[in-house]
């Protein structure tokens, strides 16, 4: 079960783990690289995919499976002793799947990718991992390409828009150590321990865009780094997923946890005066708005010393360099 605390009581998701017979004590102590595979849609030749991933030299491969699985997991796990399957009991958001995968992983670093991506072996060489270790990033974003090997946006810069809202600007000319506000499509190499300390992706946010924005802003406000590494190349085998940036119910939680917070030199806090604009903007009842505001204010107070800046300074000073 996931026990990553976000803002209130942890949201627990039941799941079953199958496989991993070769994850012996020696491999666990080395704490190399784990691969977490997220699944969407159908992909033929699944067995070939697992052959490919388990041949990359990672400590383990963890495949996050949907509630209904139509192929023999026991047979596959016996063939590949470093392959583990996480069987979800219910449908959950992509961020929650990442949370579970990284929590289960034994590696010091965890490469999260999708089943419709192709990863080159050179992207996870020991030299690449050494450089990632030296940079001490919370997440390292890869260079993403389409099926024609054309570079697609994988770094996004935050920007305020008229009226006080927020948007992201896609940057196609990715260069080494370019900062990203969040990992596009959740794809990247995460530092296992730093990710868990960050709280991971918030299960209360169901819209993947606002879920990633919340994660990214929180990490940057807490002094962590999300940087690109052009040595790591990933190709999409299918269409690149559409990013739904609609301002919906998820936005108000993102606003409270990020845009409404102020930094005063050594602590972050959520001012009471921000409540009125929040209440009017959401259109919620006074009672529910007060309850939500109190909850987030408690969360901010509990983590006040983790803040190194606020969302306003991140956005205003963003230049795409190492943050």
From the 3D structure, determine the CATH topology of the largest domain. Answer: Spore Coat Polysaccharide Biosynthesis Protein SpsA, Chain A
User: Could you tell me the number of beta strands?
Assistant: 13
Name the structural class.
Answer: alpha/beta
Overall outline = globular
List unreliable stretches of 5+ residues: 1-5
| Biggest sheet strand line-up | 1-4-3-2-5-10-7-11-6
The figure for the number of domains is 2
Second-tier CATH architecture of the largest domain? Alpha-Beta Complex
State the helicity in percent bands. Answer: 25-40%
Name the beta content range.
15-25%
| Global Rg | 20 Å
Distance between the termini: 33 Å
**CATH class membership of the largest domain:** Alpha Beta
Strand and helix layout:
Elements: E1 15-19, H1 25-30, E2 33-38, H2 46-54, E3 60-65, H3 73-79, E4 83-88, H4 94-104, E5 109-114, E6 117-119, H5 126-135, E7 139-145, E8 155-160, E9 166-171, E10 188-191, H6 192-198, H7 208-221, E11 226-236, H8 249-259, E12 262-263, E13 268-269, H9 274-282, H10 286-302, H11 311-316
Parallel strand pairs: 2-3, 2-5, 3-4, 7-11
Antiparallel strand pairs: 1-4, 5-10, 6-11, 7-10, 8-9, 12-13
Helix pairs in contact: 7-8, 9-10
Report on the architecture of this protein:
Strand 3, helix 3 and strand 4 form a beta-alpha-beta unit. This protein starts with 14 loop residues before the first strand and ends in a 7-residue tail after the last helix. The chain has eleven helices and 13 strands. The chain has helices spanning 25-30, 46-54, 73-79, 94-104, 126-135, 192-198, 208-221, 249-259, 274-282, 286-302, 311-316; strands at residues 15-19, 33-38, 60-65, 83-88, 109-114, 117-119, 139-145, 155-160, 166-171, 188-191, 226-236, 262-263, 268-269. It has two domains: 15-236, Spore Coat Polysaccharide Biosynthesis Protein SpsA, Chain A (Alpha-Beta Complex), CATH 3.90.550.10; 249-316, no CATH class. By secondary structure, it is of the alpha/beta class.
